[in-house]
Amino acid sequence: MRHGDLLAGIAFFEALSDSDRESLGTRLQERRFQAGQLVVKKGDHGASMFIVLSGGLSIFLPSDGPGEPVRLKELHSGDYFGEFAIFDDKPRSASVEALTETVLLELTREEFTAQLSRAPAVAIAIMSELSNRIRATNELLTQRAAKNVLSEIEENLSWSQRIADRIAALNGSWAFIFFLLGFTALWVLLNMPHSPIARFLPPFDEYPFQFFNLALAILVSLQGPLIVMSQNRQAEKDRAQSEADFRVNLKNEIAIERLQAELSAMRADSLQRLDVIERNLHAERIRHEVPAKKSRSAG
Q1: In terms of residue numbers, what domain contains 84?
Q2: Is 97 helix (H, G, I), strand (E, B) or coil?
């Protein structure tokens, strides 16, 4: 695949013209990584972004202690990361590791700046994409992340799905076991030729109870798909709950980072104010001490 065609499928560059994408594609440099090799390390200063040409990568936060790292996202062909590094000189916010043999396309800040000087329209297109991201982040911060996703899923279930869930729940209960045992005993009692009931109701399914075996076979054949349907729906609920928990944790982390930044700024401002006050008091003390020393020396 040509590099320009790959850029056309990336949201970060989709607003560019075909000629701009082709020109930018010629500035990309291929870099190869083996499975398990670290591509980007958290805290390092970067000046380039990467586009996945082939292979797979994992974005993670390294553990501060002996625990496992926090896996954030997996990247595959067509995905990209590190795009903010071409605009600022801030440390990398996460680490990236190659899961398989991977080929990346690297766009350095120098190459990107050279492309901007030749085609200023590229800057407008990319600024538009960045503004959309900032708007999405603001919406994430202003909306409530905590919600009862399970109740939302339950409310949107169809009648057939509700029936499948109730049957699956019944199959896994003691009530169903006692019902099946009681029904089996009653069926056998009704179809014994020498039982007292046979005087009033002739047996309709004598031993070996062929109709009863057929009914059990039909019941078992229906139970399997219904249980699998319910299990798939439970897995969907678990995924939705995990996504909701991730959004809550992400929002809390962003809020904590913002609070820490505000406290740091407040602390720096307080120290600056205290330093100014201390200097003023020192100057005021010197201003009063100098005339007093002069008067004593004159006397």
Answers
A1: 3-142
A2: strand
User: Rounded to two decimals, what is the model's pTM?
Assistant: 0.46
Give whole-number Cα distances, 242 to 69, 234, 239, in Å.
17, 12, 5
Token pair recorded at residue 80:
């990209």
Tally of domains in the chain? 2
How far is Cα 8 from Cα 16, in angstroms, rounded to an integer?
8
Contacts of 297 (CB under 8 A, 6+ apart): none
Provide, for the chain, the percentages of residues in helix, strand and coil under a 3-state DSSP scheme, each rounded to the nearest 5: 60, 15, 25
Q: Which residues pair with 49 in a beta bridge?
A: 107
Query: Could you report the per-residue pLDDT of 188-228, keeping only the tens digit for each?
Result: 888 777 777 767 777 777 788 888 888 888 888 887 887 88
The answer on 122 and 14 residing in a single domain is yes
Name 39's Cβ contacts closer than 8 Å, sequence gap at least 6: 33, 50, 57, 96, 97, 98, 102, 104
Coil, helix or strand for 28?
coil
Element (H, E) at 116: helix 109-118
Q: Peptide bond before 208: cis, by omega within 30 degrees of 0?
A: yes
List pLDDT tens digits, range 4-26.
677 777 776 766 777 877 887 88
Whether 127 and 165 map to the same domain: the answer is no
Q: Which two tokens stand for residue 264?
A: 């740091």
Reported for 66-74, long-range contacts at CB under 8 A and 24+ positions apart, including other chains, are 69/95, 74/99
Which DSSP state fits 11? T
In a domain, 298, yes or no: no
Half-sphere exposure of 2 (CA within 13 A, CB side): 10
Q: Are residues 29 and 114 in the same domain?
A: yes
pLDDT of residue 294: 63
Q: Which residues are registered as beta bridge partners of 30?
A: 105
